[in-house]
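Bench notes, afternoon.
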Amino acid sequence: MQKERLYIYDTTLRDGQQTQGVQFSIDEKMAITRSLDGLGVDYIEGGWPGANPVDSELFERKEKTKAIFTAFGMTKRSGRSAANDEILSAVLNSGTSAVCLVGKSHDFHVEKALGISLDENLTNISNSISHLVDNKREVIFDAEHFFDGFKDNPDYAVQTLKSALDAGAKWVVLCDTNGGSLPNEIRKIVEDVINYGIAGDCLGIHAHNDTENAVANTLAAIDAGVRQIQGTLNGLGERCGNANLTSIIPTLLLKQPYKDRFETGISMSSLSSLTRISRQLDDIINRIPLKQAPYVGASAFAHKAGLHASAIIKDPTTYEHIDPSLTGNSRIIPVSNQAGQSNLVSRLKEAGLSVKKNDPAIGRILEIVKEREAVGYSFDTAQASFELLARRELGELPTFFEVKRYRVTVERRKNKYNKLVSLSEAVVVVKVDDEKKLSASESMDEVGSDRGPVNALSKALTKDLGSYQKLINDIKLVDFKVRITQGGTEAVTRVVIDSEDKNGVRWSTVGVSPNIVDASFEALLDAINWKLVRDTNTKRKFVITH
C-alpha cells in the first residue's frame, strides 16, 4: 500500500517567538533553522519580514535550506490595493518561494475586529493571494479562528477557504486560534469542510494548546483528512503554546496507524536527533528542559519502582512503549528509598560497576540511600551523586583531590553612587598532586553584577586542580534548585545542581545541610568528582544521567 504524504510546517521562529519571555537573536534563529532543516521538516516559517530588525536580517541572509523557507504576513488592508500594501510588499521582498498569509475566517472578527463587511474580507483574501501567486509565490492561507467561525457561521467560514483556493492558494490551514476546541469537534468540523468540497490534500491544521489538546487535536485533524501539520518545537507559542511537533513527529513515525499509513520528510535516522534538538532549543531560550516531556524528556524512560526496574531488565518492552534511542533519548533506572536490588544492580552496571545480585554491598548501599534520603537527600533526581556514593562503598572511587578548607564572605554596601551593591568572595584550599593550592575568586560577572556566593565558590574550586584541570574546564552549571526539606529549627536545605559539559552531557548532583552554602558546596564537589570519574575511567560504559 502506497503511503500518503504528510507535510510538516514548523513555526517555532514566528509563533514560537510569541511565547512570553522568548526573543530569538539572529544567531539563535539561524541555529534553530539549521536544526529544523537537518531534522527534515518541509516548511520553516522564518517570521514577519519588516516587523523587526532580527526578522528582516534573517530573510536578508537567505540561509540555504532543503526545507521551504517561508515568510509570514497578513492579507491586505481595506482601502488599498494589494500592490500598494506594505505588508504584502515586505513578504514579496523577502525573496522566499513560499508565503503564509493569515486572514479572518470568523464573521464575528471580520465585523468587530476589522470593522468591514463580510464580502470585503473575501475580496481582501482573494486579491492578496492572487497578487502573490502572480508574483510566482506558493501561498499558504492560515484561516484564523476557523473552528470558532465554523461553529457560528459554517457557510462563511468555508467561503473564506474557497476564496483563497480560487485565488491560487496551495494550502488552506484551519486554525484553532484560541485553542478551545476539543478533538471530537476538530474531527467533525474537518470532515464537514471536506464534505463542502474542500480537498483534504490542500488542508492543514494549526492548533493551540489552551485545553492541553493541541497534539490530540492535530492527530484528530489528520484522521479526518488534513495533510499539512503546523506546530512548534517543544510546543512553544502564545499563551499555552502551539501543537508540539516534538511529540507529534515521533507519534507519526512510530505509532499505528500513522507509521504504516503516512510518510513525512523526516527519516528514522534524523528522528534520533530529536532529543538533542529539543534540549538545544531549551538551552537557547534559557529554559530548564521539561523532564516529563514525552519522547525527549529526561524522565520519559525513567523507571523508579523496583517492580518496573526488574521487568525492564528482563525485557524493556514491559514498561516502554518505544525504544528510547529512536528519539535520541536514554533509559534511566534511578535509585531511591523505594528502590529494590534490580534498580541498584542495573544502575551500577550502567556505571561500569560489575556487582553480583547477592553481593552484601548491595544491601549496604540501599541502607545508606534510605538513611540519607530520610534526612533530605534525593538520589532519583541526582544520579551522579548516587554513583559516587556506590563507588565509595565498593572501594572504587579514586581520590582526585582533597578540600582542606573553604571560606565565603558576602559584603553588602553602598557604592560611590549611593547604590546598594553586594559582592561575594570565596577562598578554597585543596590538596592535589601532593600539593596544597589556594584559589580565590569573586562572583562579579562580566557586566558587574554579583552572581552570589555559590558562583564564587564554584569559580574558586575549579580554578586550579592541577593535572585534572583540563578535564573540568568545560563544566558549566545549568540549573540550581533549592528546597527546604523540614520546617522550624530542624530545617535543612537540599541543593540539586545540574551540570553540563561541552558535548551537551548533563548530570545532577545533590547536597544537604542546614547551611545552604555548605549544601551547595557538597553538590559542586560531587559534580566535579563525577566528571573526573567519567573522563579518567576509559572502561566505563557511559550513559547520560539526569
